[in-house]
Amino acid sequence: MRVIAITTDPVRLSFLRALLADARIETVVLDAHISAVEGGIGAFPRRLAVATEDEARARAVLAEAGEAEA
């Protein structure tokens, strides 16, 4: 698994997942449970990961949508 995005914004996370799902790339949200425990204050970011073999294609999809990580 490769992390391709880190965010505290649940709306952005959902958008990124939708972009990748449209490209038929499966995603996994890491740290989702700690984010729930924190009470929604946004202190702990969630990481979006894809399979290693999908990383280049996933980064290309996000870049095309203007959502590339710095």
Layout: helices, strands, pairs:
Layout: E1 2-7, H1 10-22, E2 27-30, H2 32-37, E3 46-50, H3 55-64
Antiparallel strand pairs: 1-3, 2-3
Walkthrough of the structure:
By secondary structure, the protein is an alpha+beta fold. It has 3 helices and 3 strands, in the order E-H-E-H-E-H. It has helices at residues 10-22, 32-37, 55-64; strands spanning 2-7, 27-30, 46-50. The radius of gyration is 12 Å and the shape is globular. The mean pLDDT is 88. InterPro entries: DUF2007, N-reg_PII-like_a/b. It comes from Neoroseomonas alkaliterrae.
Q: Main attributes?
A:
Alpha-Beta Plaits, alpha+beta, globular, 70 residues
Strand content: 15-25%
CATH superfamily: UreE, C-terminal domain
Share of residues in helices: 40-55%
Unreliable spans are none
What is the class in the CATH system? Alpha Beta
- In total, the number of domains comes to 1
Round the Cα radius of gyration to an integer and report it.
12 Å
Largest sheet: 3 strands, antiparallel
Tell me how many strands there are: 3
The overall pLDDT average reads 88
Tally the helices: what do you get? 3
Rounded to the nearest angstrom, the distance between the terminal CA atoms is: 19 Å
Summarize the structure.
The chain is an alpha+beta fold. The protein contains 3 helices and 3 strands.
